[in-house]
Amino acid sequence: MKLHEYQAKALLEEYGVPAPGGQVASTAAEARAAADAIGCPVVLKAQVHVGGRGKAGGVRVVREPQEVEAAAQGIFDLSIKGLPVRKILVAAAQDIAGEVYLSILVDRAARRVVFIGCAEGGVEIEQTAKDTPEKILRHEIAADDLPHLTPGAVRSFAARLFDDAGEIDATAAIMVKLARLFHEKDCSLIEINPLVRTADGRVLALDAKILVDDNALFRHPDLAALRDLDSEDADELTAKEQGLSFIRLDGSIGCMVNGAGLAMATMDTIKHFGGDPANFLDVGGSSDPRKVVTAFRMILKNPGVSAILINIFGGITRCDDIARGILQSLEAFRVPVPIIIRLIGTNEREGRALLEGTALIPVATLEEGARRAAEIGGRA
Ligand code: GDP
Ligand code: MN
């Protein structure tokens, strides 16, 4: 789960990392009121879950109170990488003397947590990483050591970001706090870009992105409550609520499978035969026909779907229950594309009998199903 910048900054502040907050506005008039309360100059920042807001015009420093409303309206009118702007963070503008990049994340390959730093932070960090990868600094930590990190252990890292002794100490202290936050809140990423030094020698997090491991959210009801349903994929959320796993993809073949492993194998096999899956969908191990109806609804919402492959290997899942779900779906909505189905395992005979007389195309193996789906559904 992604936190918005204003939420991430509040969490950083809670852990003692200086991250000047501000007020969140939902209208231009609210932005003006917030700016009046904070005092100009202020910075207006679109709260959307994508990077590169600055380059897209979503971050603006405003010096005059009477210019705030128009500037805020300009940001509300933007769509940043396809996302509408519903909230703007209004914060006191800082007098920036230098910008660096600092993040902490899980490095799966190294099986460690790693700090990443770069003395040239700001909006060009991706380009810097590409052109001059030697400028990207790493400091690895075993996950178990996160709560015990000391400033001394990271001071030399901090000294490669800033020159001033006070700023180096401040940065090392920030890194210790980040390690504790990362550990206690089950984060997979905390990214501060830019971490700035101000003209008067303070070190501040001016932008923050935090990802919390979804699988640990049950341990953090306070963080789970921050979830911004408006800015997540509505279908993926509906799926989660109903016990399905659904991920939208770019292809043309809708997939409905039981079990995550089988779902992945199904997508691989479709690819092997030249097709392109439109989604990942695991209906789970239970036998609730309603899940099948929900699954159909989600697959059919995608206008790019030109065929559906259902691949059910019945174990705990009973094929007759799946078949009932399919019949209910065919009654509930018009399915305008061919459906190929492989239905084997528990109660397969009963399942097949229920589907007799429908237009479904039965196949015996995954290979055959994937090949037919690729032939009928074509490429995206
Ligand atoms: P991003 O483009 O989505 O990463 O948004 P950021 O919050 O990182 O802002 C982009 C850039 O705007 C920063 O790198 C700064 O150069 C600038 N910026 C952000 N906040 C302030 C501020 O308070 N004062 C000034 N002068 N510039 C700011
Ligand atoms: Mn940034």
What does this protein look like?
This protein starts with a strand and ends with a helix. The mean pLDDT is 93. A hairpin with a 4-residue loop joins strand 8 (96-107) and strand 9 (112-118). Helix 10 crosses helix 11 (319-332). The protein is built from 13 helices and 19 strands. By secondary structure, it is of the alpha+beta class. The radius of gyration is 26 Å and the shape is elongated. Helices cover 37% and strands 25% of the residues. The longest helix is centred in the middle third of the chain and has 20 residues, at 165-184. Strands 1, 8, 9, 10, 11, 12 and 13 form a seven-stranded antiparallel sheet that branches. Strands 2-7-3-4 form a four-stranded antiparallel sheet, with helices on one face. The structure holds guanosine-5'-diphosphate and manganese (II) ion. Guanosine-5'-diphosphate is lined by residues 43, 45, 51-54, 59, 61, 93-94, 96, 99, 122-123, 193-194, 206-207.
Please state the average pLDDT score: 93
Computed structural class: alpha+beta
Distance between the ends? 29 Å
Discrete helix count: 13
Main sheet makeup: 7 strands, antiparallel
Named once each, the bound ligands are:
guanosine-5'-diphosphate, manganese (II) ion
In helices, the fraction of residues equals: 25-40%
The outline comes out as: elongated
Please provide the count of β strands.
Answer: 19
Low-confidence blocks of residues: none
Q: Measured on Cα atoms, how large is the radius of gyration? A: 26 Å
Q: How much beta, percentage-wise?
A: 25-35%
